[in-house]
Amino acid sequence: MYTGRFAPSPSGLLHFGSLVAALASWLDARAANGRWLVRIEDLDTPRSSPAVATAILRQLEAFGLEWDGPVVYQSARVDKYKAALETLQRSGNAYWCACTRREIADSTNRPGEASASRVYPGTCRSGLRPGATPRAMRVRTHDHPVRFIDRMAGSVEQIVAREVGDFVVLRADGVFAYQLAVVVDDAEQGVTDVVRGADLLDSTARQILLQQLLGIATPRYLHVPIAVSESGAKLSKQNGAQPLPEEQRVQVLRDALGFLGLGDAPAADRGDVLAWARARWKARLAAATTTRFAVSAPPRYYT
Asked: Which CATH class name applies to 77-239?
């Protein structure tokens, strides 16, 4: 059975960009007569708030995006991530790293190169230097390309070792990294289809590599366009995106559906708008092997 999910972080309320991602995921699941799950990604305790998590669930309910089954909280699943990490260690696919961010930056420094684009140089790959203190744990990558078909972007290929390097699965502060947690959670929840924003497309190869190393099935992926501000910046909590308004929710839904290229939804009640969108989504997917979205800019009052 088709199983999708929406996994927000409770570091801030949902905004227009969050609604677009949630709505696309919900529509894809409902159009397939499948399940839609909600998971709260609250591993980063200093940035997470239980009150915000509750408020996010209320926001989803207010927009008619009802989920199936209980809500899963990552903070209650630490033992699962520990077990996955131990599996990677036993197989020799994970190792301790003593490098600080400054040391990595210094060893990969090239004029004009952004820090986010720097590839880990493999300093601790063969073992820690004498007297070094282990800080984080990394996955041992390889030069074989990871290939997958994204339902929007089409064929995607990435050599993780070359483009990212050995990446962190346990952070220096003791928090399990997003890449590991999401792979473990999706597998245990039986997620067959991941629908999320295109800003996460670059993470997919790392997640597929982890799936392969852990013997986990790979779901299908669909990365939808992200909403951006007039300056071209992604709408995000960090960039000060405004929380979803509490008034005129039907109009907000219609705006999000328009952004996703579904057209001008009827000015009806919430249930009728969602039913219309579900039918449009299903027809659209049936008409094409690769999903395409002719998106429009979000209205200014969301940015």
From this structure: alpha beta
Helix (H) or strand (E) run with residue 103 in it: helix 101-107
3 state SS for 120-146 = CCCCCCCCCCCCCCCCEEEECCCCCCE
- Report in angstroms the alpha-carbon separations of 61 from 98, 182, 196, 222: 45, 23, 19, 24
> 3-class SS at 261?
coil
- Return the closest-CA partner of residue 256 out of 17, 57, 25: 17
Map out the domains of the chain as residue ranges. Answer: 77-239, 246-303
Tens digits of per-residue pLDDT, 81-136? 999 999 999 999 999 999 988 888 876 655 445 445 579 999 999 999 888 899 99
Contact 132, 98 (CB under 8 A): yes
pLDDT tens column, 235-272: 776 666 788 998 899 999 999 999 998 989 998 899 99
Contacts of 119 (CB under 8 A, 6+ apart): 108, 162, 163, 164, 165
Q: Is-contact 293 152, C-beta < 8 A?
A: yes
Q: Which residue has the tokens 């305790």?
A: 45
Dihedral sign, CA of 9, 11, 14, 17?
negative
Do the strands 136-139 and 168-170 form a parallel or antiparallel pair, or are they unpaired?
A: antiparallel
